[in-house]
From TrEMBL:
This is ATP synthase A/B type C-terminal domain-containing protein. SUPFAM superfamilies: C-terminal domain of alpha and beta subunits of F1 ATP synthase (SSF47917), P-loop containing nucleoside triphosphate hydrolases (SSF52540). Coiled coil: none annotated. InterPro entries: ATP-synt_VA_C, ATPase_a/bsu_AS, ATPase_alpha/beta_chains, ATPase_F1/V1_b/a_C, P-loop_NTPase. One of its GO terms (molecular function) is ATP binding.
Amino acid sequence: MENLKLNVPLLRKRVPNLTSAARAVGLRPATVSNLCTGKIPVGRAEVRTIVALASLAKCSLDELIIREDSIEMLETGIKVVDLFAPIVKGGTVGLVARPGMGQLVVLAELFHNLKQNGYRTILQKPEGIYPELQDLYPLVDILSNSINETHEVIVNSSNSNNHILFATDREHVLTGETFELQERLEQEGISNVTTILLDLKGEVMDEEMPYGPLETVWHFDADLAARFKFPAVNPIYSTSSILEGAYIDQNHLSVQQRAKKLLRRYRELRALVQVRGNQAIPISEKETYERGEKLEAYLTQPFFVAEEHTKVKGQSVSLQEVIQDVQTIISGGADGRRVEDVTFVGRL
């Protein structure tokens, strides 16, 4: 049962507006979203939910539930992403953020890091004028003006061994163009494209499933952004289907789950501190609070693309190094360090 998953591409094709359709038949959109990302394993889903989804997609259960023998993680060098919500290579990532939360900086760093590893980057320009995209353009190999131009570029590039990172705005998702492109590429046997979906208008924050079913979702956090804890990717609510089943090292999964548990409790305690001060922390929870505070600080990271503004040298950290550092923090190995010493660093 561990390697069973929903046929997300089929759902995209058959039920474009899955949020409304799911709600109309009595399903919670959040539940459907969690099933699509793998946050809720198919084996633990209610039978009525699976049957309802199959009915919406007008397909059999055998078509809706597929066996995924192996999926590959795309490592980015960005600590919070690789540990908590890894990219599925060849999958689709949705960025959920309002303007000012730093989603374009994360996208720029992603482009920068992966170009160093031979990835080819494509950005489809959105309708309208967005001056904030100017800093992203130098990091892009190809700027596309239409979905047909994007298709042509990808097809012409598919003969090379380079993997392609394609980014587009939500407006092209709403028109159906993006999913039509993915379907065309699938029919043509082109599987070396990882898609990044962003929303320059910030409307995604107000919807439960702003992009439909996805393999990976990065939720950006207003509180982290307000406190300049960048990248402001929420480690608790961001998720990826690669974290389910036997797709990743079990040590990665164990550390990720322990880190989420620590951060959840830390956030609860922090809310208490904001109202009543440090003295409100129970003595038995003081250690939890301090370790959670250090872990949150460690997940900040100096970016290469921001060096000119921050005057801090960018850092890329491998997943194994992140796992080791987080284990150290959780187990108390960094208890003697100040929060400032682990803020905006690469490794401990």
